[in-house]
Amino acid sequence: MNIFNRLESKGHEQVVFCQDKTVGLKAIIAVHSTALGPALGGTRLWPYEDDEAALVDVLRLARGMTYKNAAAGLAFGGGKAVVIASPHLKTHELLLAYGRFVHRLGGNYITAADVNTNENDMVDIRKATPFVTGLPESKGGSGEPSPFTALGVFEGIKAAVFYRLGHKTLKGLRVAVQGLGSVGSELCKLLYQEGVKLFVNDMNCEKMHRIAQIYQAEAVPENIHRLEVDIFSPCALGGVLRDETLPELQCKMIVGAANNQLWDEDKHGALLAKRGILYAPDYVVNAGGVINISFEVNRSYKREEATEKVKAIYHTLMQVFQLAESERCLPHQAAKLLAEKRLINQKRTLL
Ligand code: NAD
Question: Are residues 24 and 163 in the same domain?
Fold first, then answer.
C-alpha cells in the first residue's frame, strides 16, 4: 500500500523517519492528530522484525493515543514513537540523538516513557529537547506513573459498580486481579483498603503469593478469568477477552489496566454484552498515567491537581455507559463516540 494512502485511511497527520548512523538510531515518530493540542504519547523501544512491523505498530499506537487523550478530556492530541532497537542497545547517545529529532518537530509531538523506556531515559532526552514529560520527581517531574494508572482503574471499578449494581461502596465485593506488576499490585492495595475480597494471579508465583499474603487475598495459579466474582480486572497482557476465554467468564463486570483487552473489539465486545457482562473500555480506564504526565507539560507539576483529574475517570466512564445506553451501542463504541465528539467540537470551534 502507498504510504500516503495508509496515512489518509486512518487520518494520520505526520510521520517522521529518523536515522543517525553514528549512534545506530532508527526511529519512527507518528503524529496522528493535533486537533486537541500537541500530540502526546510515549516512546517504545523494541527490536521490531522489520521496518514494516515498526511502522504498523507506531501508526496503531499513535491513533490509540488520540482516542485515549480525547476521551480523558486532555488538551493533547495523539502521537507515539518507536525506536527500533534491543533494550540492551539503549545508550545515552542514542537517546540524545533521538531527542534531537523530537526537538525538530518544534513541540508538535511531546514524548514520554513507554515499553523499555523509563523516567531516567526521559532525563537524557530532556538534554536535547524540552518536549518531553514524565521525568523523575527528583527532577521536578511527576515520577512513576503506575500509581496514577492504578488509581484510575480503581475509580473505574467504583463507577462500574455504581452503574451496574447501584452500590456506592466496594465493601464485600469480590474482585479478581490478573497481573500483579506495578499497576496490579497498587490496585490490590486500593481495593483491599475498601474492604474488597481479592483473588490474585501472576505468572510469577513468588509475586502472586507475596501479594496474596499482604492483602489477605486468595492466590489463583490458573484460569483466574473463570472465577465467579463481581469484577474481573485484567492487569497483565492484552487480548485476554477472546473466543476461548469469553464463554468461561463468570464475572459481572470487566475493568482493568491492560491495553487492548478485547481480542476482536466488535465481536468480543458484542459477546460480552450478550452475556450481560459490563465492559469498561480499557483506554478510558487506564488513562491515569497519561493524565498525570500531562500535568507536567508547560507548567510546574502539582500532584493534587493531577490526582483530581485522574479521579475524574469515574465520571468519564459513567458518561461512556450513559452514551452507550442513549446511542444503543456497546461501551467500546461509546468511548470512541465520546472521543470523536470532542475532536469534532474542537474542529468546529477552530473554524
Ligand atoms: P508490569 O510489567 O509491571 O506488570 C505486568 C505483570 O503481569 C507482571 O507481574 C507479570 O509477571 C504479569 N504477567 C504477564 N503475563 C501474565 C500472564 N499471562 N498471566 C498472569 N500474569 C502475567 O506492567 P504494568 O505497568 O503493571 O502494566 C500492566 C498492564 O497495564 C499492561 O498491559 C500495560 O500495558 C497496561 N498499562 C500500564 C500503564 C502504567 O502506567 N504502567 C498505563 C496504561 C496501561
Answer: no
Residue 305 lies in a domain: no
Question: Which pLDDT does position 351 carry in this prediction?
Answer: 59
pLDDT of residue 121: 97
What's residue 348's pLDDT?
63
Q: Are residues 168 and 50 in the same domain?
A: no
- Residue 179's Cβ-count burial label (10 Å; 0-12, 13-18, 19+) is buried
Mutate to test the pocket of ligand 1, among 68, 188, 200, 202 (most ligand atoms within 8 A of CB): 202
CATH number where 7 lies? 3.40.50.10860
- DSSP H or E segment with residue 29: strand 25-33
pLDDT at 8: 84
**pLDDT (tens digit per residue) in 262-320:** 999 999 999 999 999 999 999 999 999 999 999 999 888 999 999 999 999 999 999 99
* Spatial separation of the C-alpha atoms in residues 98 and 110, rounded to whole Å: 12
- The percent of residues above 90 in pLDDT, for the chain, comes to 93
Q: Is 80 a catalytic residue?
A: yes
Res 15: pLDDT: 97
CA distance 82 to 33: 17
Which domain range does residue 282 map to? 146-287+316-339
Average pLDDT over residues 200-204: 97
Helix 331-350 to helix 265-274 angle (10° resolution) is 130
Q: Which three cell numbers stand for residue 193?
A: 483498603
Cα(205) to centroid(ligand 1), Å: 15
Tally of domains in the chain: 2
Indicate whether 257 belongs to any domain.
yes
Q: State the catalytic residue, choosing from 68, 80, 252, 309.
A: 80
CATH code, domain with 182? 3.40.50.720
